[in-house]
Amino acid sequence: MNKEARIFIAGHQGLVGSAVRRKLESEGYRNLIFRPHAALDLTRQKEVEDFFAGEGPEYVFLCAAKVGGIVANSTYPAEFIYRNIMISTNVIHTSYTCGVKKLINLGSSCVYPRNAPQPLKEEYLLSSPLEPTNEAYAVAKIAAIKLCRYYNEQYGTDFMSVMPTNLYGPQDNFDLETSHVLPALIRRFHEAKAESAPRVTLWGTGSPLREFLFIDDLAGACVFVMQNFHAREIGEFVNIGTGSDISIRELARLIAGIVGYRGEILWDPAKPDGMARKLMDVSRVNAMGWKATTSLEEGIKKTYEWYKKNKFR
């Protein structure tokens, strides 16, 4: 992938896409292609085909997706499965018909079964039932993995899938109804501090264990894989993560400390916890030569600074 290559970043304004864009620009790539949703609806096949025909991308980072936390996934399952299947189908198929050299498809750790052994190894995919609270999103992401695999097998394409763990960082979604747990906690504690609230009540028991990856680390991994590997070398997909996790209860304490909230933290066990644990086995990507470098505390501090600067002026 030379510095003059035409590179399309699908979803360049989102958490993942914006980080991939920053990484590519920092390495001197000059021909980056992107469009806002208002100018290109990736769920519309004709729009995607016309865009590819006009722009002729050589490489594609498929970062676009409808994403959200447990509340959003439980409330809008039809939207999650429809939009994500349509986005991946249109982009992957059109990448094939237009002769894209390489594609990176971004997945999610939620593709793994609810009760899969820990840490999660790539071979555990489809080995048992999914977590019900995010099944719709997971099915769409699994479909994208399989699309890449079978297009590679039938058509000789070079489409690679990477499965990141829970992501966070600048450009994250901090909406309390649709966000993931880490940005939601940042906002909850920030607002509680501003309002001098004596206590904050959080969903569940706080016992689930989760792994978190700073978004700039993921972007580095995506560019690293694109630059150095082919689909035949990584197989169906490869995990991207840190290899370590933390309980939601400990995470809440850490974020409260960084934000400076000193009130009481309560838990509502009547609300769902989701999967008990989701820890990625990252031995394969580590063996390929990549490791995460940003500590959780450092990453949360960077994310909180971005939040304060961009959400509350």
What does this structure look like?
The chain is of the alpha/beta class and 313 residues long. It has a domain at 6-171 and 211-243 and 279-294: 3-Layer(aba) Sandwich (Rossmann fold), CATH 3.40.50. It is 44% helix and 15% strand. It has helices spanning 15-26, 45-55, 70-75, 77-97, 135-155, 181-194, 215-228, 231-234, 248-259, 283-288, 296-311; strands at residues 6-10, 31-33, 59-62, 102-106, 159-164, 166-168, 199-203, 209-210, 212-214, 238-240, 246-247, 264-268, 277-278. Strands 2-1-3-4-5-10 form a 6-stranded parallel sheet, sandwiched between helices. It has a 3-stranded mixed sheet with strand order 11-8-13. A two-stranded parallel sheet has the order 6-9. Helix 1 (15-26) packs across helix 7 (215-228). The N and C termini lie far apart (39 Å). The model has no long low-confidence stretch (mean pLDDT 95).
